[in-house]
Amino acid sequence: MKNLKTLTATLTCLLLSFLVSTVAVAQSITSPNGLLKLNFSVGAQGEPTYELTYKGKEVIKLSKLGLELKNDPGLMNGFTLADSQTASFDETWSPVWGEVKNIRNQYNELAVTLDQKAQDRHIIIRFRLYNDGLGFRYEFPLQKNLNYFVIKEEHSQFAMTGDHTAFWIPGDYDTQEYDYTQSKLSEIRGLMPTAITGNASQTSFSPTGVQTSLQMKTADGLYINLHEAALVDYSCMNLNLDDKNFVFESWLTPDAVGDKGYMQAPCQSPWRTVIVSDDARDILSSKLTLNLNEPCAYEDVSWIKPVKYIGVWWEMITGKSSWAYTDELPSIKLGVTDYTKTKPNGKHGATNENVKRHIDFAAEHGFDQVLVEGWNQGWEDWFGHSKDYVFDFVTPYPDFDVKMLNAYAADKGVKLMMHHETSGSVRNYERHMDKAYQFMVDNGYNAVKSGYVGDIIPRGEHHYGQWMNNHYLYAIQKAADYKVCVNAHEAVRPTGLCRTYPNLIGNESARGTEYEAFGGSKPFHTTLLPFTRLIGGPMDYTPGIFDTQLSFLPGEHSFVHTTLAKQLALYLTMYSPLQMAADLPESYERYMDAFQFIKDVAVDWDDSQYLEAEPGDYITVARKAKGTNNWFVGGITDENPRRSTFTLNFLDPGKQYVATLYADGKDADYEKNPTSYQITKGLVTAKTKMSAQLARSGGFALSLIEATPADIKALKKWK
Q: Could you give the residue numbers annotated as active site?
């Protein structure tokens, strides 16, 4: 009996010890609205783990966290929980430009300190739980045994609950310019070979590797988005899928020797993000990525302005014109080649005459700037030769008079937009950067479109590695010294850094309109980009193509896979403070009634409300123009026609508005009759119900301008 009592007491002590130990390593927090719950624990081998639920449903199953280090035991296991701290935060901040005037930044936080006793070191994993999702990152405090270290791989897992539907592009170290594929997770491996299409620079790494931002939908109606925020001094994250267990794991971009990050404490990783909702509209309206970035780094932001522009660009993309001045030189050397002794090819786009014509058009129709590509010497052999000294960014061709053209533009209230193509020679760009930016200031430019086409120099580096990510940020910070705004193409996809550096006014970093001239994009492409690429920041998508059949080109060629009305709608659904009317001036002159919408639509907003949304199918959004009571609405669909119906209850009650609807014509079709559209006008109020029929790959655009007494007298009520 005595032995039994002793045994019972011993077991009780062991049980209590186990419970205390379990409590010590298990932590949880909920979102401010209580719908999301994060659980953190340390596993049996000392490995950090987490799981996430939404309204009681599993979103992320038990998933491991950690980093594998080079020539080091690593930060994968052997941890004990040393400390945990919780906090709450709630603020409202105003972006320099954006979809809304004010953004609420509200979260509950859990920071766990983990000791790795065998190595006598520690790390912190910080979790922030918002109403719309989760962010977490690794933090490495300054300490004796974890100071300088090299990342071999980050092993952050995202364990899915099933074979979800995913909207994905292939994982790649050098390009995001792929068309999207919709499939089950289990189908990615089989579809990967056809999903990888040609590009000027590309490096895929796995038959199940995909890129972020990754949008998914579960069988029971949850929308899940995986991405990262605040990518600074670190490699871009891809996701590699274990397609037997449906577990995604982070896969970083390597450098030229295969290493994935050189770290010096104190430092931290970017945030890994999970946005989740049972309403697709919440994914589009989420500001989680921006909120996880630092506040604006600049005291004076008066020089940063949203821009609507046209350009000498589409004519080169389609082959009507050329970037190069002459066809006589297979090889050129800057400072040696004398272009005045060569024969012009007759197709050069950046001529004084052509640029003046664009300036005149911009001035007449109220555009801010004119982009001119191909203005500078070096385009004859710029691509494919791994050429270091490829451009100097200051020397124009003989037929481009920099000072005259900028003075001509300034006289008409227009600015020219600079173009810096690097051809991937980043060392050369940094060599010339100060001189190039000063040249812009001296000649009246305040914005630059930069490009990184082709393989990177230093050779072996990738577009999305740590070294290049540091370069992109260096270029933005350096540009700010000269009060220059940057629109970087072929750079790493954005992660919300535009909050901190709002002169990063745009990026490409995805398959843009140019691909409509290279074979076309799938009709559902633009219904996905707001769920994927735009989660991290705005895109310079270059919409507004009216001649979708490219009728000015001879012979066989591609066509734009949308209707004209859908091109108008993209100014709303593809949010950007930098919007281009990308077509040729003569194309707009044939459809001036439809062109009026591009002239009217704003590029900066006080409010945005997503009215309808389903990834891969359709999006309808309403936006309120900055500092006005005017609203604009845009709706798009995929390859399936549909009817969009909504009420204008976002308008001010009791006021009347002039509604102008630009919609697909009854016989519109993106293949057979893309330029069929109809324009309807009338008076509406907040109680008015609107309806628009969208053709295959079609759309509609709606302007809602506060009515004047004259409007009320002249127009009829909407029917």
A: 514
